[in-house]
Amino acid sequence: MIKFKVDSPEQTEKLGEELAPDLKAGDVILLDGDLGAGKTTFTKGLGKGLGIKRNIKSPTFTIIREYKNGRLPLYHMDVYRLEEGGADELGLNEYFNGDGVSVVEWSKFAEDELPDDYLRIKFTRNDELGDNDRTIEMTASGGHFNAILKSGDLNLGR
Ligand code: ADP
Ligand code: MG
Q1: In a mutational test of the pocket of ligand 1, which residue from 32, 41, 48, 78 has the highest number of ligand atoms less than 8 Å from its CB?
Q2: Ligand 1 centroid to residue 85 C-alpha, Å
Q3: pTM
Q4: Which string of DSSP letters, residue by residue, matches 26-84?
Q5: Which CATH superfamily is domain 2-151 in?
Q6: Low-confidence residues of the chain: pLDDT under 70
């Protein structure tokens, strides 16, 4: 597990941007943390790092938004409102095994559908430090993501 402390939305975006070059087709990234913790902000940076020109918006009401004009397709999902059986209907597995990168906000609502290999990122507010302070913890499952965490590529530009 590696842990980052950030104190601005720009830094959270930066981490996403730094992760993007290491990603490959079929990668799944799970984002957990309360409303407003920074999951979508991180995804914006990731999209930027993939070279996606469109503004990345929260997929809360659509469940999935697809962005196809970057180095890899980005499938940005918010499964907070996923209902029983909804994972099959959406074809979540096809996305996870597909030609792009899947980013899943609120992954605990799709726990039964998740693949074996993933990067899990947990966002926590640190209100006692300041409104913009967050802790970002990354846990890898599988060789590819473990290698990324060990690479030192994620360093907030330091
Ligand atoms: P989530 O997707 O987890 O609900 P968002 O990324 O949509 O959260 O919203 C996070 C909000 O908190 C944004 O308004 C953002 O500007 C603000 N914010 C303040 N500090 C940070 C930070 N360090 N990282 C991410 N977002 C931050
Ligand atoms: Mg969000």
Answers
A1: 41
A2: 30
A3: 0.97
A4: T-EEEEE--TTSSHHHHHHHHHHHTT--SPP---TTTSEEEE-SSSS-EEEEEGGGPPT
A5: P-loop containing nucleotide triphosphate hydrolases (3.40.50.300)
A6: none
